[in-house]
Amino acid sequence: MTIVRARVYLRDSATHEGRPAHAGISSAFREAGVEDLSVHHGIMGFDRASEVFSAPRFPHRPLRFHADSPVVVEAVGEEERIKAALPEVRKILDRGLITTSEVELYEE
Predict the structure, then answer these.
(1) Residue range(s) defining the domain that contains residue 16
(2) Do residues 18 and 103 lie in contact, with contact meaning Cβ atoms separated by under 8 Å?
(3) Contact (CB, 8 A) for 5 and 100
(4) Does 68 fall in a domain?
(5) 93 belongs to a structural domain
(6) Given a cut of 90, is residue 43 above it in pLDDT?
(7) Would you say residue 108 lies in a domain?
(8) What is the C-alpha to C-alpha distance for residues 68 and 16, in angstroms, rounded to an integer?
(9) CB neighbour list of residue 70: distance below 8 Å, 6 or more residues apart
(10) Which pLDDT score is estimated for 45?
(11) How far apart are CA 9 and CA 5, in angstroms?
């Protein structure tokens, strides 16, 4: 059995049908039978829209981060289940990136 990790990169402000897009993406994976799922909210961006504002540009504030944080939804499961979720994930994801890769699970 092949195990795959899917990562979906999007913005915290992304919505779908009146709720956060990351919630819909998580639901799509769960409905496909993927149980290992996490949502990461971060402060450093993953695309050109993210930026760290620095002192020369804003002399009154030493550092601050772009207000729209990146979110990564990560799902790990059987390849067939991950692939079954991806069409719905793509419908929800207005702008973002989806990556998949085979993974090896650590077992003691």
Answers:
(1) 3-102
(2) no
(3) yes
(4) yes
(5) yes
(6) no
(7) no
(8) 16
(9) 9, 10, 11, 12, 41, 42, 44, 45, 46, 47, 50
(10) 45
(11) 13
Q: How many domains does the chain have?
A: 1
Residue 62 lies in a domain: yes
pLDDT at 61 over 60: no
Per-residue pLDDT at 66 exceeds 70: no
If phi > 0 it is left, if psi is from -120 to 50 it is alpha, else beta; for residue 86 that is alpha
CATH code at position 68: 3.30.70.120
Helices 21-31, 79-92: axis angle to 10 degrees equals 150
**pLDDT band at 63; cut points 50, 70, 90:** low
Residue 16 corresponds to which amino acid? Answer: H
For range 53-82, the mean pLDDT: 73
Token reading at 58: 């804003």
What is the rounded CA–CA span in Å between residue 103 and residue 22?
22
pLDDT bracket for residue 48 (50, 70, 90): very low
